[in-house]
Amino acid sequence: MLYIGLIFIINGLYLILSDVYDLKVLIKDREFIKKKGFKVDTFYELKVSVGLLSIALGIFSVLNYIYY
């Protein structure tokens, strides 16, 4: 359950941040650069709500692993 919870948390963060930020690799450094011309639309709001649900499910899964 711990691994499943961590996968849900990572997947939720990816769903939320993938449209807003871009990951650039410069030699050995990684930078998060905000994308230009980003507009919030209905599809993005749906992705954010699914991402938040995934993060909440992951947190409860990790708490379940710790509790039991």
- Total domains: 1
Order of helices and strands: HEEH
N- to C-terminal separation?
10 Å
Structural class: alpha+beta
Rounded to the nearest angstrom, the radius of gyration is 15 Å
Transmembrane segments: 6-27, 48-67
Keywords: Membrane, Transmembrane, Transmembrane helix
Explain what the structure shows:
This protein is an alpha+beta fold. It has one domain (about 1-65). The protein contains 2 helices and 2 strands; from the N terminus they run αββα. A two-stranded antiparallel sheet has the order 1-2. β1 (about 20-25) and β2 form a beta hairpin.
Give a quick precis of the structure.
The chain is of the alpha+beta class and about 70 residues long. It is built from two helices and two strands; from the N terminus they run αββα. Helices cover about 60% and strands about 20% of the residues.
